Amino acid sequence: MYIPNLLKNPIFLFFILIVCLTAAILGILYLYYSYVGGIVLSQIEEPEVFLSWCKDEYKRFLVEWCKQCKKSGWKDLGITLRDYLANVPECDVEEFSKDFNITIDVDCSADTVKEDCAKVGVYQMLLPYKNYTPTLEGCELGFIDWCGYCEEHQWAFGNITNYEFLGSNCSKILKESINMSEMNCYSELAQLYCTMISCQLSPEPWNDDCYYSTAIITKNESLCLYAGTYRPYRGPLINRTELCYHRIAVAKLNESICNNIASAHILARCYGEIARIKKDVEICNRGANFVNMDYCYEIVAVATRNVSLCEEIRDREWKEFCWGELASLLKNETICYKIASSTSKDICFMKVAMVKKDKDICNLIVSDLIWTCYGNVAGSLCDPGICYNISGREKCLEQYRYFKC
Predict the structure, then answer these.
(1) Model confidence, pTM
(2) Helix axes 293-304, 316-330, angle to 10 degrees
(3) Which of 22, 120, 215, 344 has the greatest number of CB atoms lying within 10 Å of its CB?
């Protein structure tokens, strides 16, 4: 009875209301200082994190300032850099000024602004690394910014050379370290150097992947030398440098690139695939001193549908394989008679019977493959009746079921 009476007391209810409002205000203040002003607390608890945050924020605002200055044609916008950076009130702008070695009490028209903007690495400012960060890594990063400038100008219209872009200090460092000469965006070497340095700056082991992928995409065999090796999971070591040469040679249809390959197997594939695409057996003859050239003759014979080229193949198995492929492609079972091996000859007849959908050709087979041959023809025609009147009915039907007619 006592509690219900209290609820009817206006003084008690007013007291409860005051308590609730106080709790709500304290809660809002807690949230404000936790989320809005929390960075100040982090300055005390985690000073390194706080300083890093400040640096990133100031750099972000500085980049925006630089872009606006450039857009205005480097004219006075009526606001100084210090005032613009006041958007980050929690941090010490003087420390930022010292860290980046920039002047903050200036407007966009000041003589120092372009170079100060350059120090944040914004390549749109045109001179991002001039007389700044004179170390090899810093200058390479600067050169990558020049590459971005060239890419933005489609590798053709940029009129600023790498030396002009980087300044004398970095130009000298890159000339001494990697023999980089002065070049324009449209220079043949520009994209090559841009790719090489970009890949060098990639973390290991991904830099080899970078060289390999970029070489393939750009069809630039000069990068293949840096493609390295690769071992797939539980697989043998793969020489990606030679695979790189192979793929680019085929893409460019230039067999001279194949000569960079030492592996006889990959070399044969390189010559062979170019010869197949060009349908030119003379390319195979240029590689006659290399092993596995039989592969080259075989795929050119198939590409040109030239049975006589199979005769050029020295290895008997390769030669018979060549005849078998052409018999099937030309739908001509008489070619199969050239094959000495009875098994290979039967397989040849079976393939021709299937492509011609002619069960009578199966009768030329002397082994049990005859029933498989009948099943293949039945399946290609979706006619199981072909299997009913032969002694190998069950084997024929078993093969027929694979076709899911």
Answers:
(1) 0.51
(2) 10
(3) 215
Give CA–CA dist 5/248, Å, rounded: 93
CA dihedral 285, 287, 290, 294 (to 10 degrees): -50
CA distance 179 to 31: 58
H helix and E strand count, the chain: 20, 2
In the numeric block, the tokens 């197997």 are attached to 265
Residue 122 to residue 52: CA distance in whole angstroms: 19
Contact 338, 361 (CB under 8 A): no
Instruction: Read off the tokens for 37.
Output: 């002003």
| Span 314-336, pLDDT tens digits | 889 989 999 999 999 999 999 99
Close Cβ partners of 131 (under 8 Å, ≥ 6 residues apart): 115, 167, 168, 169
| Inter-residue contact 103 to 97 (CB < 8 Å) | yes
Close Cβ partners of 205 (under 8 Å, ≥ 6 residues apart):
none
Q: Which of 186, 183, 181 is nearest to 157 (CA)?
A: 186
Distance in angstroms (rounded) separating the CA atoms of residues 79 and 295: 74
- 313 in Cβ contact with 302 (< 8 Å): no
Query: Per-residue pLDDT tens for 115-144?
Result: 777 655 443 344 444 444 567 877 888 888
Work out the average pLDDT over 6-21: 63
Structure tokens of 369? 């493959």
Q: Report DSSP letters for 131-177, one per residue.
A: TS--SHHHHHHHHHHHHHHHHHTTTTS----HHHHH-HHHHHHHHHH
Distances (CA, A) of 7 to 1, 15, 16, 236, 333: 11, 11, 10, 84, 106
Token duo for residue 252: 């460019």
CA 117 – CA 84 distance, rounded (Å) = 14
Which H/E stretch holds residue 220?
none
What is the token pair recorded at 42?
């982090």
Distance CA 211, CA 222 (A): 10
Q: Rounded CA gap, 83 and 96, in Å?
A: 14
